DNA sequence: TAGTTAAATCAAAAAAAATTGATTTATTTT
DNA sequence: AAAATAAATCAATTTTTTTTGATTTAACTA
């Protein structure tokens, strides 16, 4: 019968760890810019986004993966193309209504 | 007559830059833990916090400075002591009501 | 006043994250 | 089928952030 009285609050640690990943994903100008563009675009493929944001493809893919892993965006693959869009629900759970406006189409 | 039609939206860049700093401050487990503790503590000096969180003083001061520079906490100095407390207003502007609960005393 | 304590800062080292250009895999087009 | 395109991944490098322990400055305390 171990761990009846845990020495530390593990669930709180896990909570912090979870949000750390999400805030890390948000903690970058380029990624905030990507999120802002994805808002206005419905669903966009990497090559179009790459032109829009003026960023080389491999670099963009790197940043998209970080946003995807954090659950802030969603991906749908059609053939060779990957279409990304914002995960509005997740953004809404995370950010203030006021801030959501930066990352929500036709709000405010 | 320069810059009548700016090539880029500078104000949006500035906005992203501002939030980048704030999210960077939030993008760390230890700092989230500090914020959570400061919520429950009213106002706390570094030495007490250092014991609570089991973190050496210089390391704690480093992280407190990051939170302070981002405007997420406030500092008041009394003699040799520095008392830190959460900047509730700023947190509320930034995070969802649901998330604010993690960093707000007696909420939820 | 001398000794102690609080907390910020510093410089060096370690760790983590970002950038770059090339490669790979799969798909589409000609 | 061959050439071209989309996008993920990789390895090497660069940049940024964090950690560590020591030092400094100021203010308490005995």
TrEMBL record, chains A, B:
Residues 12-106 form the HTH arsR-type domain. Keywords: DNA-binding, Transcription, Transcription regulation. PROSITE patterns: HTH_ARSR_2. Signal peptide: none annotated. SUPFAM superfamilies: Winged helix' DNA-binding domain (SSF46785). GO terms for molecular function: DNA binding; DNA-binding transcription factor activity. CDD domains: HTH_ARSR. InterPro entries: ArsR-like_HTH, HTH_ArsR_DNA-bd_dom, HTH_MetalResp_TranReg, WH-like_DNA-bd_sf, WH_DNA-bd_sf. PANTHER family: ARSENICAL RESISTANCE OPERON REPRESSOR, TRANSCRIPTIONAL REGULATOR, ARSR FAMILY. This is ArsR family transcriptional regulator. It comes from Cytobacillus oceanisediminis. The lineage of its organism: Bacteria, Bacillati, Bacillota, Bacilli, Bacillales.
């Amino acid at each position: 019968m171990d761990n009846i009285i845990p020495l530390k609050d593990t669930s709180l640690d896990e909570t912090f760890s979870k949000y750390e990943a999400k805030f890390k994903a948000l903690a970058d100008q380029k990624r905030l810019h990507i999120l802002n563009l994805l808002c206005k675009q419905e669903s966009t493929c990497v090559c179009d986004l790459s032109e829009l944001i003026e960023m080389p493809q491999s670099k963009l893919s790197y940043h998209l993966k970080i946003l995807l892993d954090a659950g802030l965006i969603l991906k749908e693959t059609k053939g060779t193309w990957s279409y990304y869009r914002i995960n509005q629900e997740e953004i809404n759970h995370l950010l203030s209504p006021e801030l959501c406006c930066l990352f929500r189409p036709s709000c405010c």
